[in-house]
Task: inverse folding
């Protein structure tokens, strides 16, 4: 269709004109000027900013001889005036004037059409505003997008939807190439996250208010409340104004606008109070450009640049203006590289057009740019730093490292709540701060600041409501034969009764919206219907197995603790006793005496703490600290042991060879299931259990009989069924027990409602009405209690061990200090003294009672004072040494001699 339009345009343009051949050849490698074109809508939010930015860039390039070596850029600008037709005509006009490149078009629709002309005549198109993702395909080799691709913008929106745990969105968009292809990209991105567009609401590319209202009324009747608005800046605010009028900006709605909204806010700010009221709480995106000195300088120039451009009022600088400015510089650098590589500006006739024999159409006016491919290659290889940051292209011809700001409209302004980049996803830090770190797209790393949602609420909207379209929810109800306490059809009516019906009705009454529904019976009333053929919310499966009583034996007292627990506990008894002995030995006579007595003391003290019956007192502060911590540990261990042993000896303990679904899976025993239950598919398909092992059972009586027979007598080893049925089955059959359990937005709301029923006691009342039975209510039976494991007490043992280690360290430091002070007045020993003698002396010192050490120190001090007063000299070294040895020997005899 685009090619047909091109041919029509050619007929219209050339039927009344006589164009020159346009062939020119410059002998100079660098001509005085190079002709380039530019086409966009001057009076649009994007165009009026781009016009000023492009003119400023042309002036800056031409005033800088270092860029093109004296060659000037000769720019011709055409106003497309919101018309795709005019844009295509203007493109043809550029082709007659030796134009080597065109900056534009602004519209994606126009780009689709004129790109075919650019491909044929090999003239690069550099668009700073056409964001349609499909323009990036191999079909358009001479189209170069110098702005962000909408593919990335839609990826950002999909990440936002996933971040807030929504699943369905509604897309409202312009029904043209720009809108359709952008929403198609959004659909693909959402599908990758198991989300979807549940309803598409296309709008005419130039809609009236009535057309907008008709579309939004249909949107309001839909289920989803997550609305993505992908339009252009011209009439996007009109959609939001109508939505505000219809009450679609109230609490519960979520509006995500693509970057057209930030373009309007940046360009036409401040908006009227009416317009701001209609966009409160919206989330929108802005193409992210990092802060730089170059960008700040251009922003400061903006007021002067727009002084003569404000006939219709002042306007601000948007991101499209930054990309337009960088596009001129990108093209200038590419042309400079083109000339440096020997390229020349020359054109030649298109032989295929000449063969058409166009007569008065003069098709030979359309010429091929001979250096087009070389210039295109240089454009794609440019690497420069501009107002938008690093300007270069990746392998897919998209700008390198695309990123967006995530904006929340609040009050009279906007607030940045985070950033998105294809490198790290959603984050509250600017993208460039994350590029130095490894990429992390895990869900835990995704983060945004809190949002003020429509309706002035900070609570995240649920994202959906039950659709108000008059359709009732059809709910299938199994017409069961067994377990009619859960669901049963009332004879002669279309009504149902039972536990499930009462819970469902009570939950529906708690929903914050009306839920029209109709109960549809399923089954013939003779056999239980198969729930796999009916939409059904699956409950948890449990395994039921026969159990036997564990009788107590002579060694039952050892069962409360595991083997490792017994070993570590015993080891700590000895450790604590030894530590306390070390800390008390020099102070406490209870911990002194002959070696045999001291060993007995350590053992007695250690194990008597189990009963808190230790007779030895602790004197030292460190010893008391260790003991109080240890007694606390003993208290916890003792209480746990007592409770577990009491349970073992007094409560009936049950044992079963079936430990859960895994033990059933690995065995070859037959397994029973309720006929018609989805458990059959689960066991065969999900767990891979052969169907020959699966035995269908119809009633609770068959359950009991098959379990009693067992797998060797024609029965089953265990039964797999839904927990609700099993609880009713077990309520009157105490010889069986559960071995182990296996682990639409409407389901969430119903679950919340059922939770409220549980909190207010209504669910228990319904349970007691239908399912209460007293046959096994007092049994309290359970499977054999697991032994207490070491890991349950590891924290206590670690604390106690650290306490022992720290007190020993403090004690050792204290001993060394006392040893040094005690012998600091002694004469140095002879050079023949060995280290072993020092160590033996230290051990002897440690073994002494502290009181004796202090008394000896006092005597020495008195003797030294007496000698100084009598003028006496110091004792000889040998005499002092003999006296010390004598004293040590005397003290050893006191320490290990007789008991005190």
Result:
């Amino acid at each position: 269709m685009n090619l047909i339009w091109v041919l029509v345009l050619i007929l219209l343009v050339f039927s009344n004109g006589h164009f020159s051949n346009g062939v020119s050849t410059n002998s100079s490698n660098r001509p005085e000027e190079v002709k380039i074109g530019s086409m966009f809508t001057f009076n649009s939010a994007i165009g009026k900013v781009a016009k000023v930015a492009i003119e400023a860039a042309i002036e800056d390039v031409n005033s800088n001889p270092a860029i093109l070596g004296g060659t000037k850029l000769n720019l011709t600008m055409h106003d497309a005036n919101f018309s795709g037709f005019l844009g295509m005509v203007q493109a043809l006009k550029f082709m007659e004037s030796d134009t080597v490149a065109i900056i534009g078009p602004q519209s994606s629709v126009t780009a689709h059409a004129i790109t075919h002309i650019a491909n044929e005549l090999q003239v690069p198109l550099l668009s700073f505003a056409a964001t349609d993702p499909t323009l990036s395909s191999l079909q358009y080799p001479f189209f170069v997008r110098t702005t962000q691709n909408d593919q990335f913008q839609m990826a950002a929106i999909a990440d936002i939807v996933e971040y807030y745990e929504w699943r369905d969105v509604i897309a409202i968009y312009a029904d043209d190439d720009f809108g359709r292809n952008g929403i198609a990209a959004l659909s693909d991105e959402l599908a990758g996250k198991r989300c979807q567009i549940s309803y598409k609401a296309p709008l005419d590319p130039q809609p009236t208010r009535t057309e907008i209202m008709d579309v939004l009324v249909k949107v309001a009747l839909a289920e989803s409340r997550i609305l993505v608005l992908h339009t252009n800046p011209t009439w996007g605010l009109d959609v939001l104004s109508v939505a505000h009028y219809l009450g679609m900006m109230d609490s519960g709605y979520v509006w995500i606008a693509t970057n057209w909204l930030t373009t309007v806010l940046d360009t036409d700010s401040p908006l009227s109070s009416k317009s701001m009221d209609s966009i409160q709480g919206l989330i929108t995106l802005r193409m992210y450009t990092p802060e730089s000195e170059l960008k700040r300088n251009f922003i400061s120039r903006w007021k002067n640049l727009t002084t003569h451009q404000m006939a219709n009022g002042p306007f601000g600088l948007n991101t499209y203006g930054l990309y337009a400015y960088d596009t001129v510089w990108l093209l200038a650098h590419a042309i400079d590289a083109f000339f440096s590589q020997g390229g020349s500006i020359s054109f030649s006739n298109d032989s295929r057009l000449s063969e058409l024999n166009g007569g008065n159409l003069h098709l030979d006016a359309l010429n091929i740019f001979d250096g087009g491919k070389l210039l295109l290659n240089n454009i794609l290889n440019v690497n420069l730093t501009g107002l938008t940051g690093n300007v270069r292209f990746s392998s897919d011809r998209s700008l390198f490292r695309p990123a967006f700001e995530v904006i929340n409209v609040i009050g009279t302004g906007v607030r940045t709540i985070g950033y998105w980049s294809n490198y790290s996803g959603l984050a509250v830090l600017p993208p460039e701060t994350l590029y130095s770190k490894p990429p992390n797209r895990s869900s835990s790393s995704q983060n945004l600041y809190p949002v003020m949602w429509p309706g002035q609420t900070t609570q995240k909207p649920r994202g959906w409501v039950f659709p108000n379209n008059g359709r009732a929810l059809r709910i299938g109800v199994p017409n069961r034969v067994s377990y009619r306490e859960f669901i049963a059809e009332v004879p002669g009516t279309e009504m149902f009764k039972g536990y499930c019906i009462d819970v469902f009705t009570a939950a529906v009454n708690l929903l914050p919206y009306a839920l029209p529904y109709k109960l549809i019976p399923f089954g013939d009333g003779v056999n239980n219907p198969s729930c796999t053929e009916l939409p059904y919310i699956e409950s948890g499966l449990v395994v039921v197995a026969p159990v036997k009583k564990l009788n107590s034996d002579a060694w039952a007292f050892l069962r409360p603790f595991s083997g490792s627990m017994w070993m570590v506990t015993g080891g700590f008894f000895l450790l604590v006793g030894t530590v306390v002995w070390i800390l008390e030995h020099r102070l406490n006579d209870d911990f002194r005496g002959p070696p045999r007595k001291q060993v007995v003391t350590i053992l007695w003290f250690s194990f008597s703490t189990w009963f808190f019956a230790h007779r030895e007192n602790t004197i030292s502060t460190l010893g008391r600290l260790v003991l109080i911590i240890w007694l606390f540990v003993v208290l916890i261990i003792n209480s746990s042991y007592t409770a577990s042993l009491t349970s073992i000896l007094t409560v009936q303990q049950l044992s079963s060879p079936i430990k859960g679904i895994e033990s059933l899976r690995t065995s070859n025993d037959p397994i029973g299931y309720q006929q018609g239950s989805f458990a059959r598919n689960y066991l065969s398909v999900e767990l891979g259990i052969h169907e020959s092992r699966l035995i269908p059972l119809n009633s609770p009586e068959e359950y009991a009989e098959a379990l009693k027979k067992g797998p060797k007598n024609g029965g089953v080893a265990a039964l797999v069924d839904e927990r609700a049925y099993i609880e009713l089955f077990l309520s009157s059959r105490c010889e069986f027990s559960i071995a182990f359990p296996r682990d639409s937005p409407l389901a969430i709301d119903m679950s919340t409602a059922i939770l409220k029923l549980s909190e207010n006691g209504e669910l228990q009342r319904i349970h007691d009405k239908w399912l209460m039975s007293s046959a096994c209510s007092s049994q309290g039976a359970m499977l054999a209690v697991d032994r207490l494991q070491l890991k349950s007490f590891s924290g206590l043992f670690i604390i106690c061990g650290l306490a022992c280690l720290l007190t020993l360290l403090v004690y050792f430091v204290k001993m060394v200090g006392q040893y040094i002070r005690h012998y600091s007045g002694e004469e140095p020993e002879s050079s023949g003294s060995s280290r072993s003698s020092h160590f033996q002396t230290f051990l002897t010192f440690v073994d002494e009672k502290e009181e004796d050490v202090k008394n000896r120190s006092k005597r020495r001090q008195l003797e030294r004072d007496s000698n100084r007063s009598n003028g006496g000299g110091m004792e000889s070294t040998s005499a002092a040494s003999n006296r010390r040895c004598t004293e040590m020997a005397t003290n050893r005899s006191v320490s290990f001699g007789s008991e005190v």
